[in-house]
Amino acid sequence: MTNTEEAPSGAEIRLEEVTKRYSGTASPAVASVTMTIPRGKTVIFVGPSGCGKTTTMKMINRLIEPTSGRISIDDRDVLDIDPDKLRRTIGYAIQQAGLFPHMTVAQNIGMVPSLLRWNKKKIAERVEEMLDLVGLDSAVFHDRYPRQLSGGQQQRVGVARALAADPPVLLMDEPFGAVDPITRGNLQDELMRLQSELHKTIVFVTHDFDEAVKLGDRIAVLGEQSKILQYDTPEAILQNPADDTVAGFVGAGASLKQLTLLRVRDVELKQEAITARPDETVEAVRRQLEERNRPFALVLDARDRPARWVHKRQLAHASSLRTAGKPIGDFVSTQSTLQDALEACLAEGGAAVVTKERGRYAGTIDIDTVMATVQRLRDEAGVSE
After folding, report:
1. DSSP tag of 242
2. I need a labelling partner for 375 at 20 to 30 A (CA). Which of 38, 49, 157, 251 fits?
3. How far apart are CA 147 and CA 135, in angstroms?
4. Tell me: the pLDDT tens digits for 279-293?
5. pLDDT averaged per 10 residues in sequence order, the chain, 385 residues
């Protein structure tokens, strides 16, 4: 994984007294917003529907033109840049992916590089790289059409397309809002993993405060007309909401939300699982389980990604590890929060598989480890039973 101390590849964004007023309306949709979005950080806009958070974000790439004020990217006024050229240098990912249905996955990902007149070889190489980056097998997905993908797969392709031309800035408008909760959690983990490697400047719009706490380096809690009610780190907002409105966003269980500030990478993983490859013999794995007195083995694929759990009972009648046992249900990554880990452990019966970069196996985490961390947090905070 890339060292987070390395120079980020993102760009600083500044909004100065930015206002958007639509004709025929008495009051502006966005009124005099001023803020700095740091280079290489993820900043979340969170607020109620209709507060102007999406409008504010869309003014950055001029999908909506500001009425007044100044928006700059690395000190360059966006109004001085041709809108089409500007958008080709800013990644954009939206809810339900927004893929072109008549284009294949590869064509969707390669669209912006093609508009930038990259040569075909460079585009082809970039498509392969991006599919690998978002965890999709090129041999399987390269020539598929969006209708042949699940919602989560479409969102991964959408993120790959947004990043294909290596833009310094990535705008994301409720990108995971239309998928099921487990897929949403996995996509959030994937985004955090990508950001740990790429260090883009990400502006992410959501109405979900838990998502904001999980993903954001900083959170901008917005009120009507995108008024900034509080702009700070997740820790600071959880511990000291600026007013009652912000406290309402934080909601009940603020202490439990502290679990979203700790990542799986912050705790020591267990390395006790017996792992096997699909081409190993059933007998060899069965013998390992007997020798080490373990009930389960974890089958990894050729790229070290967890694939299946197999119980020693199931090996008695199995002919191959490729089909024995059952696929892994819920799992987490090193980027996941401890709250995600707790939910996965409960779903999986006490322990969950943990993956690292490119989905490779990292170890396991169990409910005892998570609960011990919860107790430590409570003790440090002086919370009484």
Report:
1. S
2. 251
3. 19
4. 888 888 888 888 888
5. 50 96 91 96 93 95 96 95 92 84 94 91 93 86 92 88 91 85 81 87 92 92 94 89 86 65 86 87 87 88 87 84 83 85 85 86 90 75 51
What does the buried/exposed string (b/e) look like for 176-187 if buried means 16 or more CB atoms within 10 Å of the residue's CB?
A: bbbbeebbbbbb
Look at the chain and report how many structural domains it folds into.
Answer: 2
**Structure confidence by residue, pLDDT tens digits, 104-145:** 999 999 998 998 889 999 999 999 988 988 888 888 999 999
The pLDDT value given to residue 2: 37
Contact 259, 342 (CB under 8 A): yes
Instruction: Specify whether 270 is located in the same domain as 167.
Output: no
* Same domain (yes/no): 327, 201: no
Are residues 200 and 238 located together in one domain of the fold? yes
pLDDT of residue 359: 82
Provide DSSP, 256-320. Answer: HHGGGGSBGGGSPPB---EEE-TTS-HHHHHHHHHHHT-SEEEEE-TTS-EEEEEEHHHHTT-S-
* Whether the Cβ atoms of residue 91 and residue 169 lie closer than 8 Å to each other: yes
In a domain, 2, yes or no: no
- Same domain? For 238 and 289 the reply is no
Residue-wise over 9-29: b if at least 16 C-beta within 10 A, else e? bbbbbbbeebbbeeeeeeebb
Instruction: Mark which of 227, 251, 275 sits at the end of a domain.
Output: 251
Look-up of token digits 């995971």: 176
Domain residues for the domain of 312 are: 266-375
Report pLDDT digits (tens) over 349-360.
888 999 987 788
Domain membership of residue 85 (yes or no) is: yes
CATH of the domain at 354: 3.10.580.10
Q: Give the pLDDT confidence score for residue 35 in this predicted structure.
A: 97
Same domain, 280 and 196: no
Please indicate, yes or no, if residue 78 is contained in any of the structural domains. yes
Has residue 258 been placed in a domain? no
- Considering the domain architecture, whether residues 211 and 272 belong to the same structural domain is answered as no
